[in-house]
Amino acid sequence: MRLCQSVPTATKSTGGTKLPKNLVPLFWEIKQMYFSTVVEVAIGLITIYLVLSLLVSEIQELLSTILQWRARNLKTAIVNLLSGNPKSLEGLNLVNSLYQHPLIQSLHQRAAWRTKTSVGPSYLPSDAFAIALLFVLSQLNGQELTFGEDADQLLIKLEQAKSSQQLPEQLIENLQLLLVKAKSSLKEGEDVWQKFKEEISLWFDQSMERASGVYTRNTRGLCFVLGLVLSFLVNANSIHIVQALSQDRILQSTLSNLASQVVADNTFCFTSSAAEKECMNNLKEQVNTLLTDIPALPLGRSGTFPANLFVDLSWEQLVGWLLTGVAVSRGAAFWFDFLTKVVGFRNTGAKPSS
């Protein structure tokens, strides 16, 4: 009597390992279960990152408004544009003169506190900048630039302004180049001042694109610091979060449902920069509402604050907080986009090879 039957020879290839035909369905069922768990854990982790990112962005926006960081960054960028030195006193005085123009005055950001004066606008249209700059040029004492003059006369007046040191030398050189460019592209019947204004507007836009990149990098650095501090305070340890999610199927399912609803209700979120602020507000409101239906997230501490902050401190916690801080610094838009893709991948599902 044989205790063990020989294994059937008919097999199916799965990644180089031969499996009996009657075990193939079981193998794929186990594989699908494992794959499903991994995806659910990933969705839960990304959802928590999204929640923390929204909170960090709220704190960053609050600090930015109170301290007028956007307005300060814009003013520094314009000083650098006009003088070549962001700390130039001559450039700063010129910018202050520009800011007195009615078009720019109407854009000034209201100070966050009554005791503070407004630094200036947090956003400046290129047309308003060009008009204000041309107005300041037309008011130069002794070297008045009159609207309606031809390009050659304007070049002469700019050269005279350079010799009298009424304007930063770099600004005059840039204006001369822009005026020559405007003159070379001038068509019959076109006004040289209008063409000059268009060239100044384009020059301003190109400079502000670079300034915006610098501000974005600085903001991301701030978000990393805020994310790290928040991770430490609420004990948002990425390693612990993954472990908790992998062991709690109810939490997995609840976060997965929340993620699916958030993605479904914000299909066109972050598709354009114009709608980004409204999108962020909608996401914050919806997430805050849905979080009330979720059991305790794998965050927080036990014990009495602040004595519990350094309880059982370990390298695993430090690494976990660091991972969370780095993740949160990517921003809510990044994690929402990533969440949309993972939820879509989960809904599509993985198909076994034939």
In brief:
This protein is an all-alpha fold. The protein has two domains: 68-213, no CATH class; 235-348, no CATH class.
Share of helical residues: 55-70%
User: Helical segment tally?
Assistant: 13
The figure for the number of domains is: 2
Percentage of β-strand residues: under 5%
Q: What is the count of β-strands?
A: 2
Overall geometry:
elongated
Termini Cα gap: 37 Å
* Structural class based on helices, strands and sheet pairing: mainly alpha
The overall pLDDT, averaged over residues, is: 77
Given as residue ranges, the uncertain stretches (5+ residues, pLDDT < 50) are: 1-15, 111-115, 350-354
Q: How are the strands ordered across the major sheet? A: 1-2
Please explain how this structure is put together.
This protein has 2 domains: 68-213, no CATH class; 235-348, no CATH class. The protein is elongated, with a radius of gyration of 30 Å. Strand 1 (11-14) and strand 2 (17-20) form a beta hairpin. The chain has helices at residues 24-67, 69-83, 89-99, 102-105, 126-138, 151-163, 169-184, 192-234, 238-247, 249-265, 276-291, 315-328, 332-348, and strands spanning 11-14, 17-20. A two-stranded antiparallel sheet has the order 1-2. Helix content is 66%, strand content 2%. With 354 residues, it is mainly α. It has 13 helices and 2 strands; from the N terminus they run E-E-H-H-H-H-H-H-H-H-H-H-H-H-H.
